Amino acid sequence: MASIFDEGKALLEEINAASPSTPEEVEAFRIRFLGSKNIVKPFMGKMREIANDQKKEFGLLIKSIKEAAESKFQAAKVQSEIAAEDAASAHLDLSAPGEPIELGSRHPVSVTMNRIIKIFERIGFTVAEEREIEDDWHNFTAMNTPEDHPARDMQDTYYLKDSSDMLLRTHTSSVQSRVMMSTSPPIRIIAPGRVYRNETISARSHCQFHQVEGLYIDKGVSFADLKQTLFHFAQEMFGSNIKIRLRPSYFPFTEPSAEMDVFLGTDTDRTYRLTKGTGWLEILGCGMVDPNVLANCNIDPEVYTGFAFGMGIERTALQNFDIGDIRLLFENDIRFLRQFASAL
Ligand code: PHE
User: Fold this and answer.
1) Which of 16, 248, 305, 306 is most deeply buried (CB count within 10 A of its CB)?
2) What are residue 256's DSSP bridge partners?
3) What separation in Å is there between the alpha carbon of 258 and the centre of ligand 1?
């Protein structure tokens, strides 16, 4: 009987005395004491030969053997890994080429938006950014679109849950009222940002998209100023030979209102499709700021006049980069985005 206990103590001593250091030694230790065919298992089987009053003591011996093996193995493993790392860094080749760092790329929407912003910054507009969660007043009422105004149907609105007042802005025109309320003329701002409308998602429209808004208020600002500014923009954006036209239109916050088209022609399949065979592509809405809007925002319409314009970014981005489906712009598929790595 004593010999079984001695056998166990010998195992324990062997474990305590072992000092595996190389990865091979550590592995051999693991196989001998912890592997699926380890030497402790047959020893445990000897429980049957132990007298009942000594079974408890034998159990404790087995437990201490297992614990000793486990902790020795863990410690040795860590040591051998550190040693391996040290050995590797001792052989570090300082002349080896570095790991390439992957460069990100700008999103086509950002590229297009930045181009537009740059053009207006060069002629004295400064960027104004505002909240996307807006109240009804700044988005609609101040912009001469009170409740029950039929023009509210032009933009299907997402209201915040349980609120008839807070909404996701439907256009960047909300920045107009924000800026007019907080600064006094002369005002010359450009407001890029994301807007939301409750629209069915398809290849051509999405429930979120981006706009750039422009607002210029000062004494004596005229429709001729608006036209010249937009013509200059079109030349910078599409080339100096670009032709533009203004068509009468309607927006509650401008009077008179217009939409601007640029002439792309019908020479290629793409421009034919894009312009529905007319050669003209609509790119923005604009007009003279309605005196009601100025008055709503505490600017005296007897003293000041102004113009405003707003344009969607996605459509121009799709056209610039020859992308066929607006949904691609919001999926953030890296394989798609990588293709624009060379854009500015
Ligand atoms: N806010 C209008 C829209 O979303 C565009 C616009 C802006 C028109 C400013 C006129 C003046 O369609």
Assistant:
1) 306
2) none
3) 10
State the Cα–Cα distance between residues 168 and 161, nearest whole angstrom. Answer: 11
What letter represents residue 142's amino acid? A
Q: Could you give the CA distance from residue 71 to residue 77 in angstroms, rounded to a whole number?
A: 10
Query: Which residue's CA is the closest to the ligand 1 atom numbered 6?
Result: 310
Which residues are within 8 A (CB) of 120 and not within 5 positions of it... i.e. 6 or more apart?
190, 214, 233
Query: Taking the model in full, what pTM does it have?
Result: 0.71
Q: 326: closest CA among 342, 335, 338, 313?
A: 313
What CATH number has the domain spanning 108-340? 3.30.930.10
Residue identified by tokens 């030969």 is: 49
Read off the pLDDT of residues 293-311 as tens digits, 9 standing for 90 and up. Answer: 999 999 999 999 999 999 9
- Residues in contact with 251: Cβ distance below 8 Å, sequence separation at least 6, in sequence order: 151, 257, 285, 287
Sequence ranges of the domains in the chain: 2-88, 108-340
Per-residue pLDDT of 17-68, as tens digits, reads 999 988 899 999 999 999 999 988 888 888 888 889 999 999 999 999 999 9
